[in-house]
Amino acid sequence: MDAKGRIHSVESFGALDGPGIRFVVFFQGCPLRCLYCHNPDTWDSADGTEYTVNELVEKIKKYGSFLAKGGVTLSGGEPLLQYEFVYALLKELKRQGIHTAIDTSGAVPLAKCGPAVQTADMIILDIKAISEELCRRVTGADNRHALRLLDFCEEIGKPVWIRHVLVPDLTMDYRELEQMADYLKGYRCISRIELLPFHKMGEYKWEAMNSPYTLTLTREPTEEEIERAKKIFADRGLTIK
Questions:
Q1: Distance (Å, rounded) from C-alpha 198 to C-alpha 1?
Q2: How far is 95 from 72, CA to CA, in rounded Å?
Q3: What pTM does this model have?
């Protein structure tokens, strides 16, 4: 029987979600509740549209002309929440010769998602915070599964991009960033760090869901603050984009 998954939406020409031009599949469902989430409409696992692997692959193949220099990125929500479907989809995309990436928070235990992680060509890991206390404050959960996933990628030589959102007065704490950079600098699997400035473009979605958005008064980081944050990682030999 063809595996089935629930998909929130797709983007056929993504330029920010992996190398080259990407077909991005946004999966429905997420176990985290990040305070700055710009897609809270992906949280509910029961929403979205149901696809089989074959249906989704046929949709992707229509854009094959540009996938040769890019690929497919599975994002969300949290794609690894649907780890069995993701694994089946990745195997088929691999059979088609299409480059694949998983954009994940690392919130799903490796015991469940390990085969999918191993099958993808690369992982884009969004580390919310390096300290467990701050991670719980930001997401409602700790970061142990994310850090274990990173260790696994190191063990098997899986290429990783790290992402981190800079939120003033929350995740843009320079001491926290120094601790994160010190933690990450020893990983050979990490090829780049992306520091993403906080924005409030998804605030209207929270309002539509009648969910309290606690960062209404939070400002965006300045260019100077972003450059200072980047320098922390660059000074430790990490590649910043």
A1: 42
A2: 13
A3: 0.96
Cα 7 from chain centroid (whole Å): 15
Task: Return the H-helix or E-strand segment holding 237.
Answer: none
Residue numbers of the domain that contains 121: 4-164+188-193
Q: How many domains does the chain have?
A: 1
Task: State the amino acid at position 212 in one-letter form.
Answer: P
CATH of the domain at 28: 3.20.20.70
First CA to last CA across the chain, in angstroms?
42
| CB-count exposure of residue 67 (10 Å: 0-12, 13-18, 19+) | buried
User: How far is the C-alpha of 1 from the C-alpha of 162, rounded, in Å?
Assistant: 35
Strands 190-197 and 122-126: unpaired
Digit-coded pLDDT (tens) for 30-58: 999 999 999 999 999 999 999 999 999 99
pLDDT tens-digit series, residues 172-221: 999 999 999 999 999 999 999 999 999 999 999 999 999 999 999 999 99
